Amino acid sequence: MSVSVSGSQVLSFPSIPRPHSNPPPKPAALPSSSSPSTASRDSETDSSSETNAVKNVKFVYARASPSIRWPHLKLSETYSSTHTQLPQDDIFPAKTQPFDTPEEPQKPGRIVVNNDEAQEALGRRSRTRVKKMNKLALKRDKNWRERVKYLTDTILALKSEEFVAGVLEERRVQMTPTDFCFVVKWVGQQNWQRALELYECLNLRHWYAPNARMVATILGVLGKANQEALAVEIFARAESSVGDTVQVYNSMMGVYARSGRFDKVKELLDLMRERGCVPDLVSFNTLINARMKSGAMEPNLALQLLNEVRRSGIRPDIITYNTLISACSRESNLEEAMAVFSDMESQRCQPDLWTYNAMISVCGRCGRPRKAEELFKELESQGFLPDAVTYNSLLYAFSREGNIEKVREICEEMVNKGFGKDEMTYNTIIHMYGKQGRHDQALQLYRDMKSFGRNPDAVTYTVLIDSLGKASKVEEAANVMSEMLDAGVKPTLHTYSALICAYTKAGRREEAEETFNCMRRSGIKADNLAYSVMLDFFLRFNEMKKAMGLYHEMIREGFMPDNGLYEVMVHALAKENMWGVVDRIIEDMEKLRGMNPQIISSVLVKGGCYDHAAKMLRVAISNGFELDHEIFLSIMSSYSSSARYSEACELLEFLRERAPDDIQMITEALIVILCKAKKLDAALEEYRSKGGLGSFRSYTVYESLIQESIQNELFDVASQVFSDMRFNGVEPSERLYQAMVSVYCRMGLPETAHQLLYHAEKNGIILDNNVSVYIDIVETYGKLKIWQRAESLVGGLKQRCSKVDRKVWNALIHAYAFSGCYERARAIFNTMMRDGPSPTVDSVNGLLQALIVDGRLNELYVVIQELQDMGLKISKSSILLTLEAFAKAGSVFEVQKIYNGMKAAGYFPTMHLYRIMLTLLCKCKRVRDVETMLCEMEEAGFKPDLQICNSVLKLYLGINDFKSMGVIYQKIKDSDLKPDEETYNTLIIMYCRDCRPEEGFSLMNNMRSLGLEPKLDTYRSLITAFGKQRMYERAEELFEELRSDGYKLDRAFYHLMMKMYRTSGDHLKAENLLAMMKESGIEPTTSTMHLLMVSYGESGQPEEAENVLKNLKTTGVVLDTLPYSSVIDAYLKKGNFSAGIEKLTEMKDAGIEPDHRIWTCFIRAASLSEGADEAIILLNALQGSGFDLPIRLLKERSESLVSEVDQCLERLEPVEDNAAFNLVNALLDLLWAFELRATASWIFQLAIKRSIYRHDIFRVADKDWGADFRRLSAGSALVGLTLWLDHMQDASLQGYPESPKSVVLITGTAEYNMVSLDSTMKAYLWEMGSPFLPCKTRQGVLVAKAHSLRMWLKESPFCLDLELKDAPNLPKSNSTQLIEGCLIRRGLVPAFKEITEKLEIVSPKKFSKLALLPDDQRSKTIEAYTEGRKEKLEKRKKIVDPRRLKRIMKIRSLKRRKYFREASIPNAIGKQRTFKPIGTERLS
Length: 1484
Prior knowledge:
The protein has a domain of 151 residues. It is mainly α. The protein is built from 74 helices and 17 strands. Helices cover 64% and strands 3% of the residues. It is elongated, with a radius of gyration of 57 Å. InterPro entries: PPR_rpt, TPR-like_helical_dom_sf, TPR_mt. Belongs to the PPR family. P subfamily. Keywords: Repeat. This is Pentatricopeptide repeat-containing protein At3g18110, chloroplastic.
């Protein structure tokens, strides 16, 4: 709004011009000062003009009257005030200052201000203080005003059929040319047609020649009425007569400026200069106003226009500056407005109220309410009084910020100052509530507005409908539209558009379409927004026919869809496969909109037409278009989001060949696409090969490479790319910093991650709010047990932040827990309890974990009780943590107690809990508990997983229950579980222990075919099993396969093979193996050479073993008794006792004292000697070396010898290599062989007492009768067997302890000193006729039914005297004899040989019967048995009935199964090889 002062000191408040076009609605727009180049508001058109232009909707702004705007100034009015009309498209209208000349008369509605104080308060200087008018001039001034007013009222009072010419002909008043100018102007303010009629009448009657002032006046009237064509015609007609007058040119320029036709204004300005007419300040102000209305402002445009005015030698005035600031306000360009305002102050041009209003307006528009408030205070400090526009502008600034309290405060101040809330105020606040979603308050304010007598205008209704529509309150929006129509307010284009948008958002197609049609029926033409909304709506509802019809209508009306709408169109058309229509749309984009192929390509890509897009882009590049970076990256992004990576790569290769200037950008895009396509190797290759182009500067390239490397867990690659990124000066983002901190933590480099935090903070990126970053670093420090650094990190975070997140505290507690720092963890826990945040389950678990790692399990229950006393609940996870701790410690009792407590408390066991329990029970070999828990687990609905099955398999493997292993393996297959490496390794070891290495080897091949690799221990077990089965070639093949496959075999493998060669007696291979060891870089040790010497000894070549010993001596190795024992043992086994004794002497001469190894060798040899003389020779040699205990045991009968043996064993207990165990075995063999069995019994019991033998080596307890003689020698086992039978005999006679259903004797399958314990036990028991038989499922186990065993012990003559006694005299010969690994009674040897040679395989019972017969009777019985067997075979051949033959064979087969069975199923898990009676190995 502008102020002009006439010569009579009259204030003028002209109206505000309407813009030429109707822009889209701007709800609650900020009030701003409009261009001061326009003089007044458009006058109201009469009925004849309504057909030529759209009728403008009036908005009455009652505060246009100064007496209302400043009520405290007590201004008086000379005429009734006119109302200022606001345009329909701007809620806060712009105000303008007029360009009228100073001698302009006062308009109706102007106010006479008689005091200077009021004049100065309004921002104007009082001119009365400078110049006063005399009384004559004042009288003349009053007379001409009366004449002009009289004629004006007369013309305006004319009826439509009356003419102005009639009034002029009457000549009632004498008028001057100047008077007529004012009449034309005053009439034009009410009716521009009558003003034009008056102008034409004056010209036609030639009452005076049209002067410049008259032409300028009528041009101004026509300009305000938007009658540009008439103004141009009058200007062209009068141009020759008026001459080159600045005033006329300025008026015509003002006509063009109203519609923003800057080019026309510029042409007139240039024409003025050509004709020698010098432009004045008004000319330049008009030019500036036209430029500001012609389009968006360019940077620094306002200052450029100011400089152009100054270059013309004219100083800008207040109107110039206000025009520029008002334009900046409309553009929301605060920076430019501040620059103009600063220039204004620097040029000492005093700002007025309108300047401050415009500045407050632009600050509000730009979201700077505090700056607007500062200007408001500055305005008051400069002596200006704020008006309604000022308050509304400030109100809008804070309403846009959503500051309800401040808005309320400003409203209260307005009311206190005498201003009431007007329509503009209500509109602003309603819009604020709408944006904040407070629709109920907005509606209430709308109702209050009506109740207070404020009539809502189109803007009010539009704002309400728009806000309700955006909140999806469609019904309320429709109701507001109904109220608008009922109130007689005509909806505008923007009102209809807002309601259409509301309906489209809610998906109500019919209502939206009906509203659109209603708008057109009401005479309002749709604009681009309305067309676009409806077109988009039809497309989304797949109404293709309506959509295309509306599109063509839109084109005809001169509107074009924007790029986004074209994207929706082509997408919908492509979805319907309407490719022909797509081609036509592309043609429209190219021809009608003038879009270049690159932009069209971008639209097509976003619309999903990739092939068309690629084609357009190729055409663009081929035609010489430069590759636009933004469009190119947009296309690549669309390709990437739709995962069309191959097409993207093809396009990039095309561009690489034809756009060499953009090779860097194309390469970067290619790398990004390859990363999106998960082709990291290709992306890295491209990155490394093109790195010489000048280092990549694109952040996206580095981010893509790093993210893809992280997804592929290539953390070293991600770290390298990140280093390149920082080296090349590309600053990482916050998200990338977070990702790299996580990467370094996962790489185990928390120090690097910690340093990265400092680097990010240095670059202004603070990660304090990202808790996960600190948690990762603290946890990694904890895992590496660097809790000090974790503590320092959290301490620094605590100093910077007022409150540390609970998760960070928990991470620090867990960091302490990894190192077992319970006290520090407890201190943090107590701090959380005291200062907050309160601890959680994770905090409690970390505290308990610290105690567990510290090994203080006994304090767990105490700490848990303390936590419960503090009011904390112990969760299930905490209980599980405690249970796991006790499980790892192997405390079955505590684990079961916790488990039962959990069940009692109502905690249902989970799969994880069952897994822990079963793993522990399997580890402790609690078979019954395991089986019970498996049943409980299945009842609870859980199926054992592979980990549990593997644990159970290991359990059964540990107790050699191969049948149960077969059951578990079958469950694995039935449950569709895939066996893993652990499963196969366990099963292969089972085959090896079951003496079935071939089946184990077959299973290992199956394992390899599945891509699983056996462990080295599995290979070792197979080689050992092949060696035990004397399948040496297979063992050698497997060993060579391991070496050829590149396995790094340790010394144990070579020792294993050497032991096998020792057993086989193949010393040559043992020598070759020694060479292989050296080639593999494994130096042989003394143990290795010992094994080599043993192999020579087993092959009967003690001389070679002695050569090895001599070689060892030459190497300078310090020798002990081990290599000598190997050589001595070799000589003694060969029977060369003298050589063995000679080596003993040689060893003593070398200063090596004989130890347990040498003693054991001589005692073993003595126990296997044929006669007592040989044994005494050997034992005398030992006596000569200082160990006389064995010879004394044979010759003396003193009880003191037992105490000496006890002392000897006490000395040997700490010695390694099972020294005491081996010595006891050897002594018992010796004493049993020479019938000193009572002495043997004492030593046996002494070994048990000293825990050399197990305490449960045999048992006779309640329902637990059994024995386990594994690892015992034959003599010691026979002593133990006799003692066990004696105990069981006593129990059978007394009836206590009660026996089980069956009694088990475990002998094992190993050999000790070339003696098979299993064969020896069988021979001894079967000779006695015992009921013990071989177990059907396990090898090396004998089983007897308890009832049969008790009867045998009571009634058998062999059991009448089981007391162990010493022979009165030392027998001359050995009482036992070793035959093919079986140590049997010497007197039984003939019978053994005869039975095994003639009958081959017999049952134990028949063997016992035959062995007891005399020699001649035994031969006859064997012959009769043989003949009887032949007769049965002949009878079987004569049987014709096959069913009878089958039945007989079945009965015989069942009988044979009592003692042995055949392994008929080759690959069945848990099946064992055949048990054969004594002598079968020899016969086979």
